[in-house]
Design a protein that fits this description.
Elements (H helix, E strand, L loop, with lengths): L2 E2 H8 L2 E3 L5 E2 L1 E2 L9 E4 L16 E5 L9 E4 L2 H12 L14 E2 L4 E2 L4 E2 L4 E2 L4 E2 L4 E2 L4 E2 L4 E2 L4 E2 L4 E2 L4 E2 L4 E2 L4 E4 L4 E4 L2 E4 L5 E4 L4 E2 L4 E3 L5 E4 L4 E2 L4 E2 L4 E2 L4 E2 L4 E2 L4 E2 L4 E2 L4 E2 L4 E2 L4 E2 L4 E2 L8 E3 L4 E2 H11 L2 H29 L2
Parallel strand pairs: 4-5, 5-6, 6-7, 8-11, 9-12, 10-13, 11-14, 12-15, 13-16, 14-17, 15-18, 16-19, 17-20, 18-23, 19-24, 20-25, 23-26, 25-28, 26-29, 27-30, 28-31, 29-32, 30-33, 32-35, 33-36, 34-37, 36-38
Antiparallel strand pairs: 1-3, 2-7, 21-22, 38-39
């Protein structure tokens, strides 16, 4: 694809400083881009490469000054990078055909331009919207539904009756609709509680590779519009995650927990069950959330605490050996003073 800098600026809603007729044919990192390629400075630490890069154009912050360079100045370079990457590297067009090696029940409703690869199983009563793509070795349980423009990558399992919205991406190896972890004790024996609910995933959600999302005990485990999960995330039964939230790798969310909108759960964080995390909360990496968190809080640590308090605590940890040695010396001095005082008191007594 060849495109002028002016056309790219219009797509990115940016302002050109340089030759608007410069032809761009690709995109590359700033330290290896060459003529004909456009590059980005989304992180300030790469700004030092602006003067040396061989790229034909640079997308950068609005206050960037680089004489002799073709610039597209934008308010959010990282967002502009994402938009340009998608435009300059469009996803390959799928075939819109169903491979004869797929096993599909007779009553499945299939929309227009649906692509189903070999070794896919789709059970009775399922519904696939327009432009759906299902890659090999996927299992779609009976009465499940998948919305328009959704992509299901290889080796994904979607359990019966689960509903997937439009423009959803489900990465390889994910299991949606596995049984929730529900057991009742009968003496020393665990008695399984049937998990009769579903998983509902709304529009524009992206689920990372090897996620496990359990069906609800009775109603639904619900991931709302625009939320993104990283790889290796576990979401237990009856969990509700609000809109535009972000759940990072190796996070575990215990049963019946409710997350608000725009929540960030950083890597290896976890929650106990039956709590509520408010809107716009940020949970730091490796934190353990043990109680409700109001809107807008930033927390870290296990058990969780306000982030600034956690920073002070962790800053103190590395000083503990020296503090212990100081405490031992002070204790010895106090003991010596007390012994001396005791001797003096004995001498003064009649």
């Amino acid at each position: 694809m060849k495109i002028t800098l002016k056309e790219i600026a219009q797509i990115l809603d940016g302002e050109i400083d340089g030759d608007e007729n410069c032809i761009i044919s690709g995109l590359a990192g700033i330290d290896r881009a060459g003529p004909g390629e456009i590059t980005f400075v989304a992180n300030p630490k790469y700004a030092r490469y602006i003067t040396t890069t061989q790229a034909s154009a640079i997308v950068c912050a609005a206050d960037t000054v680089a004489p002799g360079k073709n610039l597209i100045k934008v308010s959010n370079p990282y967002l502009a990078y994402a938009k340009a990457l998608r435009f300059l590297n469009p996803a390959p067009k799928e075939s819109g055909t169903i491979d004869p090696g797929a096993v599909i029940a007779d009553d499945v409703k299939i929309g227009d331009n649906v692509t189903v690869y070999p070794f896919v199983y789709i059970g009775k009563g399922c519904c696939l919207g327009d432009n759906v793509t299902i890659y090999p070795h996927c299992f779609i349980g009976k009465n499940a539904s998948i919305g328009d423009d959704t992509v299901v990558e290889p080796n994904v399992t979607i359990g019966e009756r689960c509903t997937i919205g439009r423009r959803v991406i489900i990465h390889a190896g994910t299991v949606i609709g596995s049984d929730g972890f529900g057991f009742a004790r009968d003496g020393a024996v665990y008695y399984k509680i049937p998990q009769l609910g579903i998983v509902q995933i709304d529009d524009d959600v992206e689920i990372g590779a090897n996620n496990t999302i359990d069906r609800a005990a009775l109603e639904r485990t619900w991931i709302k519009r625009g939320t993104k999960t990283d790889n290796l995330v576990h979401i237990a039964h009856n969990v509700i995650i609000g809109e535009d939230s972000c759940v990072v790798a190796q996070t575990g969310i215990a049963g019946s927990t409710k997350l608000g909108d725009r929540v960030i759960m950083a890597g290896q964080s976890a929650t106990v069950g039956h709590i509520t995390i408010g809107n716009d909360v940020i949970v730091g990496a490796r934190s353990g959330v043990s109680a409700d968190i109001p809107d807008g809080q930033v927390v870290s640590g296990a058990p969780h605490m306000p982030h600034m308090q956690w920073l002070r605590m962790t800053g103190t940890l590395k000083k503990l050996p020296d503090m212990r040695r100081t405490l031992v010396r002070l204790t010895q001095k106090v003991e010596a003073l007390e012994a001396e005082l005791h001797k003096n008191q004995e001498k003064e007594s009649p």
